[in-house]
Structures are given as C-alpha cells and as structure tokens.
Amino acid sequence: MKKEIVICLGSSCFSRGNKQTVQLIKDYIKAHQLEDKVFFHGNHCYENCENGPIITVDGKEYQNVSPENVIYLLENLFGKD
Ligand code: FES
Fold it and tell me: What share of the chain is helix, strand, coil (3-state, %, to 5)?
C-alpha cells in the first residue's frame, strides 16, 4: 500500500517553510524512486497553524516541520540508503 504524505499548503504553513518543503519532498521521492510507494499531495489549512508547518503521513500529524528536519523525517519513514 502506498504511504500518503500530505503537506499543508495553507498560507501560514506555506510561508513559514512548506513552500521549500514541498520541493524537498518531491526531490526526495524522485531521487529515491519512491513514486510507486508514495501518494504525495497538498491540502488546505489544518486549523493548527500555531503548531505548523504541518505534514501528515498516513493520517499521523507531524508538527513544526521545516526544510531542515524534513529529510530526517523522510529517512525515518523510508530508511536510509
Ligand atoms: S496553514 Fe497549515 S495548519 Fe493552518
């Protein structure tokens, strides 16, 4: 089954890091050839802006995601090479 990764593209999360994080996740999926394993898409505001930027993975919410820590999160999800 594919993992579903959803990134908040509401204006607060978007302007505080998810703008870059979207691209980092896309690049990671491509670099690790995870296209068949991941359904990655955006969503509107989760009404939890103060704990953002927000990403969810299979319904589990990750808070305070940043372009710096998202790679660590992805490595935990998919394992390192
Ligand atoms: S903009 Fe992401 S939770 Fe509101």
Answer: 40, 20, 35
Q: How many domains does the chain have?
A: 1
Residue-number span of the structural domain to which 7 is assigned: 3-78
Using one digit for the tens of pLDDT, what is the confidence trace for 6-18? 999 999 999 999 9
Q: What is the pTM of this model?
A: 0.94
Q: What is the mean pLDDT of residues 32-59?
A: 97
30 CA distance to ligand 1 middle (Å): 26
How far, in Å, is the centroid of ligand 1 from the Cα of 19?
12
CATH number of the domain enclosing 68: 3.40.30.10
